[in-house]
Amino acid sequence: MSAPDDERGLLERLVALEEKVATLEAELAQRHYTSMKRHKRCPCGSGSILHVASVRRENLRPLAVQPGFISEQGVFEAYVCRMCQLVEWHVVDLAKVKVQDTVTEYSTERLEPGPPGEPYR
What we know:
alpha+beta
């Protein structure tokens, strides 16, 4: 095989690889999400998401950060992917949760959500 044939073969491989990278980048851009709650899409690519507005315990009380006799503070909600069964948890009313016995706050800074498009908070 001559040098021009080697170069042509390498060039063909390079073109094929660049096309594959472009395809993968486009696929990744379509799958980018920050959360199932926000985008109604799972990292696996599925758009079939269940929203559980109030996760209940066996005694039918909502699961919460601070369970109570009359009302719960920090009630959990969940988003579940029907395809891969990934579960994403959120606290609905975090502002009502008091830092006390069973809840410890480790940060003294006010946490702000990241810019739109950031994958995690």
